[in-house]
Each structure stands twice: as structure tokens, then as C-alpha cells.
Specification:
alpha+beta; RNA Polymerase Alpha Subunit, Chain A, domain 2; 5 domains; seven-stranded mixed sheet; YbbR domain-containing protein; YbbR; c-di-AMP_regulator
Length: 402
């Protein structure tokens, strides 16, 4: 028995019959399922047919939603824009408001289920057009700028739309930004209709963009400001600067108002006076800020005047030397010591501290015949550069003793 079954399943005749039966069942399943309708939805553009000439159409929406049914095979091959057409027919309509049915044209095998909306409200109005000049609405220029010229090309546009809309248009404008204005370059700007609060979606502007170019100049003004000389370093320690004279003392600048408003003075190249011990004169260039012109000479003469510093030092109880030969044998001077204040440059005076006195105080008794006489105290300076400021006392009394 088992052998017979094995022979049956392995025979060519059985396999051919089994294949034919299986193919029949598959064909029956596919063809039976393809007859089942499939419903699909589409959102399509609404076409307008037989539009009367010389009118403008105002239609709130130009889209409709449709549902169509088809067998599974057709549904998978639908091309909406080709197989489903939705339209309204405007044949013979006069200007005014109208409610029209939405009609469909379907390819073979398609069945319309629903269409939404099924009717549309539209308004036909006579078309009109007119030329309107384009006016630029310019932003306010900042201080220091002046408008030389403005070019709008083309200078006018054509507006087309319903007769009522075209009548309501009061003008056409372009509105450049401040950056557009200052660029001094040709740019393309969109044309806007006035009043700008109105919705102009049903109006056509030809062209809707125009070329705009403005020429803006920088206004230059003049301003007189003082000249400041930066000083580097210090003079020799024995000297101080008493004056710095700049000729000229002021300079006239030319530039934009915005730039000059921020300038209260102008400087020269720095002047180095490190270690100088005499008056100095130099020619210095003016440092000119970017965007600024200097009217006149671009350099100044600078004269630096010095004054010597004075330092003092006091010698106290300095012994008075006696010089010369007198005619008397016994005599005396009173007092025998003095205080002496010397003065001179600080560098010299400071070098004398802690050293032997740089001066000698003395009196000369040569040829004194009086028995009692007030004589001056003289001071001999042994160091160059210093002088005697004060001797206290400046006279002593010479007295003969007998």
C-alpha cells in the first residue's frame, strides 16, 4: 500500500494534474478579489470652463475633495489629474453672483461616490486695468547723510483686476530699508499697492518688481579742535618742563557729522623728552583719524621749555677763616662761626651730602686801621655749579685788643 502511494505522488501525470488544480484556485482567488471595489479620496484643483471674456472671477476656493470607487486593479493605477477632472461651466454667465454645480469627468471604470463642495459660489466682475506710477517710500536718513537722487525703473506698473478693486487702488509703492538706501547699488524691490491694509490677492501687478537705486552722499562739515601732544619720558632730573607750546594750537577737521561729533581733540605723534637738559623744538605729524581730512598743514611745531630745579643745603657752625695781614697785633672777630646756605642743581647738591664742605667762609683783615669795624663774611665756592644763597651772619665785628 505504501509503495503504491509513493508511486502515485512521484508520477508525472499526478504532478501535472495537481499543478493545473492549484493554478485554477489561484486564478479564481485573484480574479474574484479584483472585482471588490476600493474607495479612495483625492483633493483636486477646480477647473473653470467657458470663462466669458473681459471678466474677473472671484472664487473663495479652487479645490474640491472627491471620493471615487474602482476595482482593486484600477484603483492602484489612477492618475488623479488625468482620470478625475472637476470643473464648473461658466458658459453664458453675466457679471454678478452665481451658484454653480461642480461637475466631474471620470475615466472608464471609476464611479463617483461624493464630491465636496458640490456647488460653488462665485462672482463675475468686469475686468479693468490702469497704469500707476511707482513711488518710493524712503526711511529717514541719519544725521550726516543726504539723498542726491532716486531712480525707480520702470517708473510705473499696470494693475489688472476687477473694476471695483482697480478703482480702490490709490497708489503703488516700493519700501527700501535703510541698508538698501545706503548701499548705493541697484536692487529689485516688490511693488506694493495702497492702501496697504487692503487685500489685493485678486489684483495682478505687471511687473510685480521694479529696479531701485539711490545715491546717498555723506555730508561733510568742518570742526576746529585743539591739538594735543602726547609726551613720553621725563627731562633730566635737574630740570622741569615749564611749557609745551604747539604751533598751531588748533586744527580744522573735515568729515561726516557723525564722525566729528565724537572728536573733541586731535593728537600728534608722541614726543620723547627723556633726559633732555635744554629747551627743545620738534616738528610732529598730526595723527589723522580714518575718514577725516585735515585742512591746512598736517604737522605742527612743538616747543618744550625747561627750567632748572634748585636744591639747597645748609652748613651750620662753619669756622670763619682769617685772610690777609692786619696792622694790629691783638684783635678778634665776633662771631667766629657762620651758617651758610648753598643752592644749585639737585644732582650736584645731593652729591655733596656727607662730604667736606664745598665752601670756605672767610674775612679779609688787610689794611683795617679802625680799632672796631664791621666787616663782611666772604664765601669761597670750591665746587662748580653751586652758589651761595645766604650767609648768617653776613658780617662780623673786628675788634682790636690792647
Amino acid at each position: 500500500m505504501m509503495k503504491w502511494i509513493d508511486n502515485l505522488f512521484s508520477s508525472r501525470t499526478f504532478l501535472k494534474v495537481f499543478s493545473l488544480v492549484l493554478a485554477f484556485f489561484l486564478w479564481f482567488y485573484v480574479t474574484g478579489d479584483s472585482n471588490t471595489d476600493v474607495v479612495r479620496s483625492y483633493r483636486l484643483a477646480l477647473q473653470l470652463r467657458n470663462v466669458p471674456s473681459g471678466v474677473t472671477i472671484q472664487l473663495p476656493s479652487r479645490e474640491v475633495e472627491v471620493q471615487v470607487a474602482a476595482n482593486r486593479f484600477l484603483a492602484s493605477n489612477i492618475i488623479p489629474e488625468k482620470d478625475i477632472v472637476c470643473y464648473v461651466d461658466l458658459q453664458g454667465l453675466e457679471p454678478g453672483r452665481h451658484t454653480l454645480p461642480v461637475r466631474t469627468s471620470l475615466s472608464t471604470g471609476l464611479q463617483l461616490i461624493t464630491i465636496n463642495p458640490s456647488t460653488v459660489d462665485l462672482r463675475l466682475e468686469k475686468s479693468a486695468e490702469r497704469a500707476i506710477p511707482v513711488t518710493p517710500e524712503l526711511p529717514q536718513l541719519p544725521d550726516g547723510y543726504a539723498l542726491r537722487s532716486v531712480i525707480v525703473s520702470p517708473s510705473q506698473v499696470i494693475v489688472r483686476g476687477t473694476e471695483s478693486d482697480v478703482k480702490r487702488i490709490t497708489g503703488a509703492v516700493v519700501v527700501p530699508s535703510l541698508a538698501d538706501l545706503l548701499a548705493n547699488e541697484k536692487i529689485s524691490l516688490k511693488v506694493m499697492l495702497k492702501p496697504q491694509s487692503q487685500e489685493w490677492s485678486n489684483v495682478t501687478v505687471i511687473p510685480d518688481k521694479v529696479d531701485f537705486q539711490a545715491e546717498v552722499d555723506i555730508v561733510k562739515i568742518k570742526k576746529e579742535v585743539p591739538i594735543f601732544v602726547p609726551i613720553e619720558g621725563e627731562p633730566h632730573p635737574d630740570y622741569i618742563v615749564t611749557s609745551i607750546l604747539t604751533t598751531p594750537g588748533n586744527v580744522i577737521l573735515e568729515g561726516s557729522k557723525v564722525t566729528l561729533n565724537g572728536i573733541s581733540s586731535i593728537t600728534t605723534k608722541s614726543l620723547n623728552i627723556s633726559g633732555i637738559n635744554e629747551d627743545m623744538e620738534a616738528q610732529l605729524p598730526i595723527s589723522v583719524p580714518k575718514g577725516i581730512n585735515v585742512l591746512g598743514d598736517k604737522s605742527v611745531t612743538v616747543k618744550v621749555t625747561l627750567k632748572q630745579r634748585i636744591a639747597t643745603m645748609k652748613y651750620e657752625n662753619l669756622e670763619i677763616e682769617i685772610r690777609g695781614r692786619g696792622i694790629y697785633r691783638n684783635w678778634k672777630i665776633d662771631p667766629t662761626k657762620v651758617d651758610v646756605i648753598i643752592e644749585g642743581p639737585p644732582s650736584i647738591v645731593s652729591s655733596l651730602e656727607g662730604k667736606e664742605p664745598a665752601i670756605v667762609a672767610y674775612v679779609d683783615i688787610t689794611n683795617i686801621v679802625s680799632r672796631r669795624l664791621s666787616i663782611p663774611v666772604n664765601v669761597e665756592v670750591k665746587v662748580k655749579g653751586i652758589s651761595v644763597k645766604k650767609v648768617d651772619p653776613d658780617r662780623v665785628t673786628f675788634t682790636v685788643l690792647d
